[in-house]
Amino acid sequence: MKSKKNIIDRVMLRIEKRKGNVFMLKDFKDLIKEYDYDQVLRALRQLVKKRVLIRIGHGIYAKTRIFGNGVVLPNATIGDLAEEALQKLGVKTDKSTYWYEYNSGMSDQIPTGRVIAVDRRVRRKIGYNGYEIYYERIKKR
Question: Is-above-0.85 flag for pTM?
Answer without folding.
Answer: yes
